[in-house]
Amino acid sequence: MKISLFAAATSLAFLAAGSAVSAHKTHLDDGLFTTYSVGGNGSSISFSVCGSLAQSEGCYGGGTLSPFESACAVLESSPKYRINVVTRDIYVLDKRASGADPALLYIYKRTDTITDSSDAIQVSPKKTVSLQTTGGSSAHCSLAANDPLVYVGTDASTTAVSVDKKSFAVTVLPGFSPATTVTSITADERGYIALHYGNGFYLFGPDGSLQEDGGGAADLVNTRNGWKPD
User: What is the pTM of this model?
Assistant: First the structure.
């Protein structure tokens, strides 16, 4: 799996003393943000890290993850901090070109080494997981996560799966009878996950345990992204 990293030119515009980092910020990367874009009809995913640090502002670098057959969803894990090093995982779902092939979940480890004026970014492949669900070029993807698990589904398959973040074990989640495809997977800010099928739903708790199920829909909303009912 190819990873191309680039260091972007940073403006190095030193912040005035009166505009120092706000007292409420507790991490070195609080002023940074990462934007993602897709290239080549899903053959690659690029990202760019920009924002401000204590003594500079601008764009600090980024990279390109490739090749994929048809990347359709991207997710980041919560960051972990150790002195001036920030680590997180990046999950890329590849629905594949053919609906006969299993979807793939690519997992990368991203490391940011941050100073007052720079961010050195490294990305390395961590794991590729073959999923027991399918997609295809015309499928629509759903991807969500809580602390222990990543949940994956497409509207081309009647099965959704969860992937353990530590062991990478894949678990096929319950469906419905008669079988219908996965409509969406939604999450709230606490880590509750809702799997919405064409004729019912399952709701999982932050620890991955089943909380309830039923007919119809029971989608979740969070404080960041708006819920879009079909």
Answer: 0.92
